[in-house]
Write a structure and sequence with these properties.
The structure is a homodimer. Chain A is an alpha/beta fold. Chain A folds into three domains: 77 residues, 434 Repressor (Amino-terminal Domain) (Orthogonal Bundle), CATH 1.10.260.40; 134 residues, Rossmann fold (3-Layer(aba) Sandwich); 130 residues, Rossmann fold, CATH 3.40.50.2300. The first copy, chain A, has 14 helices and twelve strands. In chain A, strands 2-1-3-4-5-11 form a six-stranded parallel β-sheet. In chain A, helix 7 runs parallel beside helix 14 and helix 12 packs across helix 13. The longest helix of chain A has 18 residues. The radius of gyration of chain A is 29 Å and the shape is elongated. Chain A starts with a helix and ends in a 13-residue tail after the last strand. At the A-B interface, helix 6, helix 7, strand 2, helix 8 and helix 13 of A face helix 6, helix 7, strand 2, helix 8 and helix 13 of B. Strand 2 of chain A pairs antiparallel with strand 2 of chain B, so a sheet runs across the interface. Chain B binds a DNA duplex through helix 4 and helix 6.
Amino acid sequence: MINKKDIDSATSTTSTTSQPHSSSLASTNTQPTLKRIAHESGVSVTTISRVLTGQASRYRISKKTETAVRKLAKELDFVPNQLARGLRLKKTLTIGLVIPDISNPFFAGIAQQATLGTRKHGYSVILCDSQDSTELEIQSLGLLQSRNVEGVVLCPVGQSTDHLAEYVGGRLPIVLVDRFYPELPLPYVSSDNVSGAKQATELLIENGHRRIACLQGLRHTSPNEFRVRGYKEALTKHHIPVDETLIVGDSFTEQSGYIETKLLLKTQPDVKAILSLCNLNALGAIRALAEEKRNVPEDISIVSFDDPPYSAYLATPMTTVAQSYSEMGEVAVKLLFDQIQSSRGQTKGGILLPTTLIKRKSVKRLESPSN
Amino acid sequence: MINKKDIDSATSTTSTTSQPHSSSLASTNTQPTLKRIAHESGVSVTTISRVLTGQASRYRISKKTETAVRKLAKELDFVPNQLARGLRLKKTLTIGLVIPDISNPFFAGIAQQATLGTRKHGYSVILCDSQDSTELEIQSLGLLQSRNVEGVVLCPVGQSTDHLAEYVGGRLPIVLVDRFYPELPLPYVSSDNVSGAKQATELLIENGHRRIACLQGLRHTSPNEFRVRGYKEALTKHHIPVDETLIVGDSFTEQSGYIETKLLLKTQPDVKAILSLCNLNALGAIRALAEEKRNVPEDISIVSFDDPPYSAYLATPMTTVAQSYSEMGEVAVKLLFDQIQSSRGQTKGGILLPTTLIKRKSVKRLESPSN
DNA sequence: GTGAAAGCGCTAACAG
DNA sequence: CTGTTAGCGCTTTCAC
């Protein structure tokens, strides 16, 4: 305010080099703006903007002006205000990332790759933890929109799809990770869960098992449904009847794995093998087994989904179906930026990444069928 | 453009209720703005803004107008543009979160609490993964500033402090988590590492151990230095000479743990106990031990820092020094918002959270001293 | 009770 | 080669 007039009537000529500016400006601790640089250098904000956005040559700005501006900008430690920039350009260089539970190593891995990949594109990510609640997921999506993100990577909670339908047209680019909805035409990346579960089950069958329990996670979510399908397909293929009472559990948690295994041990004493559909379920199963003094794999064999880093270090190194979550994160970012950059209609389908069966020591070869 | 004149000369009176607006407006798919609502309702943007920011009563806006505005806003699915808002208010309701490696469960836990806590304050978080690189950490801090975050929670990489000095005055509120710098007066939250390491070491000593190796992580970082100090203090207290050749390792990784343990086994055959300063180091140690056919705890005892969820499920359930990382995240957010909200000078000191020694089965009682 | 207008910091026509 | 001006969507004096 003090020197408003000075600013307005500033002559662009002969800005005597070390003219003492109003000291409050020189040492002020608020972020410098284009205006301030303009004032201190005697050039217009336009020119500063052009130089600092690398358009100096396009506008044939003199080398001298350019270097002067750059120098001053550096001196003042100028950082462009992305808010203003975003408002003007309608490009915020930001995407949203919605994760049900970042403390789950599976999602943490995805988040890491997504963050890293996003940064490569010069974008930032706003992180939302939906806490496995559809309510919070909806809220997060709204919040992200109000912050003008250009796209979002969403690991949906997974049971309701209504709130996602509106994104189908491509109003806001979105890509689903891990869980998706076959009937909802949004692009997605997931693992080939059918094939993974099938392979795991077949491994057990090939080792002579016929009574194989299936410790499932949250029902009606795509990973769970597909894994159960793979499990059933393997049984059927080998002419083993599917026994629905062997398919138990209802959430992707350690606790569910624990409880269901305890029950199983009581009610189905002939079960000699478990297919666990999630690493947390498996941890719970291990705890239950230990409590009941059953040894793995002598008394009971187990194969689990996911291959957390400690799998090899467990009391019995665990045979697992590994999903490449880092690749999932990477592909998700790729699909998202394809959409953002082309601004064309959404990619139609989804991508299913292959799983890898990692054999360790938790499966025992049965000489004679257990049943 | 088409109906610019209409907009400008819109009379606020008698907006015939269902007057057909230019259809492109009614069904456009771009986010509605105050202007649009104003246009469609025949009230000024000012009024809309006041209603929607809950200042209706303050400005004595008529009940009728208020409800009409609210209704329309809801119909149009209006979401205020936070960019514009932030620009105007100089409040972005956003904080930054810089993590060295989100795939590390320790940091993931902190990130989760920080995200959740932040949301409670109505704020969002921009996540940056510094990949354990000071370079990236500096870059992230700049990026966050350019996005006008109101504060940042930083888990510093930890070896250089120069780039942090500028935050001391409180230009941008910041709180350090896990690693900090005693000589740098920035608020921080960490664990009481000295005491934790000391307790763990004393547990070994009380069980008859005297030759205790220390598997350390990244040197010159505060957690490492303090843990080593705790280790030494315990030894000294019990009149056991500190042998520097027993303090080995140089990074918080599985690999470092593995290599150093292998070497240790060769060069220091009399070592019967290991204090591991990080969960990953411990995993590496376990692998080395298994390869060399040493049993835990029969041949060698081990106590580790951090208590990841699988600790109890390892071949030998691990005795650990647990840090409450969820509490760390929570306290960090609290300290940050204290600063943001008070806009007063920074909190001076830091907070050290107590650790908990969790006894499991990886420590053996030596009947006669091993030395 | 309500509006007009200025301005946050930036970019992009449109002049010269 | 450089500057003037308008405007992104919002809030807030100041005015009536």
